[in-house]
UniProtKB/TrEMBL annotation:
<dbReference type="InterPro" id="IPR052358">
    <property type="entry name" value="Aro_Compnd_Degr_Hydrolases"/>
</dbReference>
<feature type="domain" description="Amidohydrolase-related">
    <location>
        <begin position="12"/>
        <end position="276"/>
    </location>
</feature>
<dbReference type="Pfam" id="PF04909">
    <property type="entry name" value="Amidohydro_2"/>
</dbReference>
<protein>
    <submittedName>
        <fullName>Amidohydrolase family protein</fullName>
    </submittedName>
</protein>
<dbReference type="InterPro" id="IPR006680">
    <property type="entry name" value="Amidohydro-rel"/>
</dbReference>
<dbReference type="InterPro" id="IPR032466">
    <property type="entry name" value="Metal_Hydrolase"/>
</dbReference>
Length: 276
């Protein structure tokens, strides 16, 4: 399938998930959904908020079986892109097939896991092929480990996407050394940050929002308008009863009150990263 690209980008939700309860779930998962999060529901949210495009990320509890994700992408190939989860030993041809089906990146969800050595020989074929195909590598890990992981990925020539502000500790503030080290990667030109999931920053809602408001100008200063991407993180797994899509859009407007800031988060960064 040839990927179709629309240049009429009014806004992009750069991070969301779809799934249903009938799917086989992985062993050792940290979360089990008790509801369905359908493509139709999510597209309804995009339409309601004037967003033209979206990026679906494979949920951790579905492991490396990306079939549901790929089926969703096939239903709206002009509008959607995907981020898959794959095993380190995946064949290059299989990774290439994913790319032709609308996958633009692979995700390493390392929360709650032992820190992998991405310089080890077992990782080199995957990372090398991802770099050759132009697929980014998305990191979901606490901020303390981000510099080490970034260094290993950039040594292989990979584009890197850092999830959810880098999962910093909001109560520590933007001056904390761990967040400052993350900012240093802004000069690399091949690292993006997802401005998403404010509720996952470890503090109270007030602390998290305060951190996000202070962090955004710093992220724009260090990474620039084409290296930041907004995501709703819909359906907000583990936080479903506290937040919703509308509240995420309101928080976006709160932390990015200036039109040029929202343009960077909703359009410029997404077009540069996802090829829209």
């Amino acid at each position: 399938m040839t990927i179709q690209i629309s240049h009429d980008v009014t806004g992009v939700d750069g991070h969301a998930h779809v799934f249903d309860r009938s799917l086989a779930l992985t062993e050792g998962r940290r979360y089990t959904p008790a509801y369905d999060a359908t493509l139709a529901q999510w597209l309804g949210h995009l339409d309601a908020h004037g967003l033209s495009h979206g990026v679906l990320v494979q949920p951790s509890f579905l492991g490396s079986d990306n079939s549901y994700l790929l089926a969703a992408l096939a239903k709206a190939p002009r509008r959607l892109r995907g981020v898959a989860v794959v095993e380190p030993g995946i064949a290059p041809a299989a990774l290439e097939r994913l790319r032709t089906q609308g996958v633009v990146g692979i995700r390493l969800n390392l929360m709650g896991k032992a820190l992998p050595d991405l310089t080890a020989p077992s990782w080199q074929p995957l990372l090398g092929t991802a770099a050759e195909l132009g697929l980014h590598v998305e990191l979901h890990r606490q901020v303390e480990d981000i510099p080490t992981l970034c260094a290993a990925l950039r040594a292989r020539g990979c584009k890197v996407v850092i999830d959810h502000f880098g999962r910093p500790h909001a109560a520590f503030g933007v001056g904390h050394p761990t967040f400052r080290r993350l900012l240093e990667w802004g000069g690399d030109g091949q690292v993006w940050v997802k401005v998403s999931a404010i509720y996952r920053l470890g503090g109270t809602l007030e602390e998290n929002l305060s951190f996000a408001r202070q962090a955004l100008p710093l992220l724009l200063e260090h990474f620039g308008p084409e290296r930041l991407v907004w995501g709703s993180d819909w359906p907000h797994t583990q936080h479903e009863h506290q937040v919703g899509y509308a509240s995420q859009f309101q928080w976006l407007q709160s932390i990015a009150p200036q039109p040029q800031q929202r343009q960077a988060l909703l359009v410029a960064g997404a077009r540069a990263l996802f090829g829209l």
